[in-house]
Amino acid sequence: MGKEMSYSSGDGRAAIYCEDAVAFLRGLPASGIDLIVTDPAYSGMNQRLKLGSGKIIGRYKEAGQDGAKWFEEFHDTEENYRTFLEQCYRVMRMDSHIYLMFDSFSLLTLGPLVREVFDVKNILCWDKANIGLGHYFRRRHEFIVFASKGKRALNCKSIPDVWKIRRIVKAAYPTQKPTELFELMLRGSASVGALVCDPFVGSGSSAIAALKCGCRFVGCDISARSMEFAKARIEGWLAGRGDIYQPGSQVSDDEAIGQLLGREFFTRS
After folding, report:
1. For the segment 60-98, what is each residue's pLDDT rounded down to a tens digit?
2. Which of 7, 104, 182, 203 could, after both became Cys, cross-link 176 (CB 3.0–4.6 A)?
3. Which of these, 121, 82, 123, 79, lies nearest to 104 by C-alpha position?
4. Residue 42 — pLDDT band, cuts 50, 70, 90?
């Protein structure tokens, strides 16, 4: 791919690059990705919704070492986000899916741009089960925009549009998402052996989900700490030690979601 590889698993199933998301996507060949699942580190809530004495979401500096930030937020201006979406579209195969995570603020400001590039099919809701922070009603959810390039049916028609999966508390990595979120995306849209891409790897949850589901994975993150975290997590999984940063299931009391994640219905591509 003409890149300096930051990490590649010994079996070639997973590769992560330390790079800006847009630059990473521009370096990928066209039409080679089967599925994109990603959770961009949107800056909108921190930049615009400063309430009280602090920002509305995480003081990520405090989680790092020597006063350094864990990661840089994605500067989600309309121009930058549109470029990101156009590059996602370029690298995806025809008749493939993309899942983009949003908080409520970024959905209002940037969500409409997705329709300029992709065919938006639905907006999914992640119910975190446990209540979180908030000044005007405490938040317990995030959104996922589900869209397509071309036409592709879902693998399964019984997946609901509300996913009740507990958020991870006291996570070793800030903003760490449960692997089950990404597993549900893959269950809906991937086949065994598919190449899954995440341009915002973060804690590596999407990579673990891809490996668990028999897929290949490629992604990037601008943070060296994220790279170290995700690399250790992937190597732990491939060495048979399980998920070292999410040892237990985060599925809540939703019987339908539990059954879906326990069912084997993938087919080989």
Report:
1. 444 444 444 444 566 778 999 999 999 999 999 999 999
2. 203
3. 123
4. confident
- Identify the DSSP state of 195: E
How far apart are alpha carbons 179 and 246 in whole angstroms? 8
pLDDT in tens, 217-243: 999 999 999 999 999 999 999 999 999
Cα–Cα distance for residue pair 38/198, rounded to 1 Å: 5
Q: Give the DSSP H/E element, type plus range, for residue 178.
A: none
Beta carbons within 10 angstroms of residue 95's beta carbon: 12
**Identity at 167, one-letter amino acid code:** R
Alpha helices in the chain (DSSP H): 21-26, 44-48, 78-91, 104-117, 179-189, 205-212, 224-238, 255-261
Between 42 and 210, the more confident residue is: 210
| Dist CA 123 CA 143 (whole Å) | 7
| Residue type (1 letter), 231 | K
- Whole-model pTM: value is 0.88
